[in-house]
Design goal:
By secondary structure, the protein is an alpha+beta fold. It has one domain: glutathione-dependent formaldehyde- activating enzyme (gfa). The protein is about 15% helix and about 35% strand. The strands form two sheets. The chain has a seven-stranded mixed β-sheet with strand order 6-7-8-9-4-3-10. Strands 1-2-5 form a three-stranded antiparallel β-sheet, with no helix packed on it. The radius of gyration is 18 Å and the shape is globular. It starts with a helix and ends in a 24-residue tail after the last strand. The relative contact order is 0.21. The mean pLDDT is about 90.
Length: about 150
């Protein structure tokens, strides 16, 4: 195999491997994390809490098992909001960026897609809590819309 072909194959393998793990970070780059590209569900949440938390019209997030997310930089800069032994959110202590929050008794986390550097394989599949969406925001895609949790 010519050297150019080998380099091409090696680069293809590196690219494929890098898609298995996604990178994420806070706004000031003090905290970084890696998460497996294996999200179980993904939604766009329009509830008033997610809107207030994100400062945006809605919060796209993906859910994954807790052990599949690893803080790779700035763990000492993390700020716990809530009870660290129960439901809590993790934010950057320097810039306040929301990085993830725990659900299901801490066995899973929800990751705001806006904190991801890389594109996840699973895109949001529906909008939830559209009954309380920002009145000035118009949903323009064809994803299903739910007034509550889609699984309710």
């Amino acid at each position: 195999m010519p050297d150019g072909a080998i380099a091409f194959v090696v680069e293809d393998i590196r690219e494929a491997m890098s898609r298995d793990v996604l990178r994420g970070r806070c706004g000031c780059e003090a905290v970084a994390y890696e998460v497996a590209d294996e999200f179980l569900v993904a939604y766009n949440c329009h509830c008033s809490n997610c809107r207030a938390t994100s400062g945006s019209a809605f919060l796209p997030w993906g859910e994954i098992e807790r052990e599949k997310l690893r803080v790779t930089k700035g763990a000492g800069s993390l700020m716990v909001i809530g009870d660290a032994d129960q439901a809590h959110a993790m934010r950057c202590g320097a810039c306040g960026s929301l990085l993830y929050w725990t659900v299901h008794d801490g066995t899973h986390v929800r990751v705001p897609y806006g904190s991801l550097v890389d594109e996840p394989a699973l895109k949001p599949t529906a909008h939830m809590f559209v009954g309380s969406k920002a009145p000035w925001h118009e949903i323009l895609d064809d994803l299903p819309q739910h007034d509550e949790y889609p699984w309710s």
